[in-house]
């Protein structure tokens, strides 16, 4: 047979086509295998990422006692990062989360500490639940030390410590006293109470822990009659000496500005004597700046930072709008028994502008003042207010009054023991 010039034999063509087909099959299989490997790898990374995210999120989505905790298998849990020891210069007390710890040992109760006011004695007043007592505030990156009453007493040996402020600051003072009292024999202590100055003495340590009543820090016509009401209150925003003369010679001063500045959007203010006829209504944050600057000027002029340490507590939040935390139809903090666990939750109970004023004035002072910012951690604790387990007008709420939570629920003050213990834990960490 005569060969056609330029054409390959049929057998060669068939061989080439078969080879190409085989190579294509091999390439396809390799590509499929490679794709499966990549898909498996992506799946593993996705699962690992999901597991890590779940683990980190468990801090914000805590489980109530009795509920089943769904945790990833041990081998999937990432290793917990080691936390550094608390350093006030770099550890933020606002970055953290509440963790339930039923095994925590309470240093006192409102039955074992005889000094707690009836206004704050929730358990003694009949509150039926107690979970609110067993929450610890954990910092994200640092370890917050436990309150050590014996160590505190040693630091206070031969010294005076004074809390200055309103009824919320009084609750913190009582918490501090009860924490310390847990390490003091009953024969080695004394307590003197008055409407203006109250003094707890640990005689063995020659130490006093005092409370001075000055709800606005500056002078006000309602200092002795806090029930005067927001409409009747007038602040002397440029006068503080009447109160401040009692602060001299104190080794540790702890001031507050909790909710008294937030009793309304406008505050009546006066310069000069209270006997003057006229007063001026100012925006609350303007009055706050004026009053706080008056206080700051006194501190700068009268406090020796080598002899006295000064602390200032940030605003304690209220929980007046149950809609803030998704409880539609709720009555403020009434019947709330669990914290708001959403990370970074911020409701309507703290005024950011007031906090900015506070930070600005403190930041301009000559005398160093340590701001203890407890606002963020307090935001979450809707469960820990006195609610209806308190008193009004000096009398415990009756059963009929408790049955009317719309009128009588107190979502400003805190049960003691409770959240004020955590404030004092942070104060202790700074001492």
Automatic annotation (TrEMBL):
GO terms for molecular function: xylan O-acetyltransferase activity. The keyword Membrane applies. It holds the Pfam family PMR5N. GO terms for cellular component: Golgi membrane. It is found in: Golgi apparatus membrane. Keywords: Golgi apparatus, Membrane, Signal-anchor, Transferase, Transmembrane, Transmembrane helix. It comes from the Eukaryota. It is a single-pass type II membrane protein. The keyword Membrane applies. Residues 90-143 form the Trichome birefringence-like N-terminal domain. Residues 144-429 form the Trichome birefringence-like C-terminal domain. Residues 40-50 have a biased composition (Basic and acidic residues). Belongs to the PC-esterase family. TBL subfamily. PANTHER family: PROTEIN TRICHOME BIREFRINGENCE-LIKE 3, PROTEIN TRICHOME BIREFRINGENCE-LIKE 9-RELATED. This is Trichome birefringence-like N-terminal domain-containing protein.
């Amino acid at each position: 047979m005569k060969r056609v010039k330029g054409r390959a034999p049929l057998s060669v063509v068939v061989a080439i086509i078969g080879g190409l087909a085989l190579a294509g099959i091999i390439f396809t299989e390799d590509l499929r295998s490679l794709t499966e490997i990549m898909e498996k790898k992506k799946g593993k990374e996705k699962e690992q990422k999901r597991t890590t995210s779940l683990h980190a999120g468990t801090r914000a989505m805590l489980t109530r006692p009795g509920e089943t905790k769904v945790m990833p298998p041990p081998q999937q849990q990432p290793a917990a990062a080691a936390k550094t020891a608390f350093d006030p210069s770099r550890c933020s007390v606002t970055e953290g989360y509440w963790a339930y710890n039923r095994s925590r040992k309470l240093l006192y109760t409102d039955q074992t500490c005889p000094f707690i006011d009836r206004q704050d004695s929730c358990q003694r007043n009949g509150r039926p639940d107690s979970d609110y007592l067993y929450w610890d505030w954990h910092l994200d990156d640092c370890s917050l030390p436990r309150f050590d009453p014996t160590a505190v007493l040693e630091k206070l040996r031969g010294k005076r410590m004074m809390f200055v402020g309103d009824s919320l600051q009084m609750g913190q003072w009582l918490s501090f006293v009860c924490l310390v009292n847990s390490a003091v024999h009953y024969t080695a202590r004394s307590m003197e109470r008055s409407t203006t100055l109250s003094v707890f003495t640990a005689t063995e340590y020659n130490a006093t822990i005092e409370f001075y009543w000055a709800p606005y820090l500056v002078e006000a016509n309602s200092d002795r009659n806090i029930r005067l009401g927001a409409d009747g209150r007038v602040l002397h925003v440029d006068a503080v000496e009447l109160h401040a003369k009692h602060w001299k010679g104190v080794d540790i001063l702890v001031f507050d500005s909790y909710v008294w500045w937030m009793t309304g959007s406008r505050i009546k203010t006066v310069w000069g004597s209270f006997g003057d006829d006229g007063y001026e209504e100012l925006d609350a944050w303007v009055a706050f700046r004026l009053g706080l600057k008056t206080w700051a000027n006194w501190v700068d002029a009268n406090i020796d930072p080598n002899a006295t340490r000064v602390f200032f507590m940030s605003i304690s939040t209220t929980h007046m709008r149950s809609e803030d935390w998704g409880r539609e139809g709720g009555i403020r903090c009434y019947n709330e028994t669990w914290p708001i666990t959403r990370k970074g939750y911020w409701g309507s109970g703290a005024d950011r502008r007031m906090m900015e004023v506070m930070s600005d004035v403190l930041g301009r002072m000559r005398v160093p003042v340590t701001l203890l910012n407890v606002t963020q951690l307090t935001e979450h604790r809707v469960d820990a207010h006195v609610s209806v387990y308190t008193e009004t007008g000096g009398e415990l709420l009756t059963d009929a009054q408790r049955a009317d939570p719309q009128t009588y629920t107190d979502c400003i003050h805190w049960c003691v023991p409770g959240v004020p213990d955590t404030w004092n834990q942070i104060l202790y960490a700074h001492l």
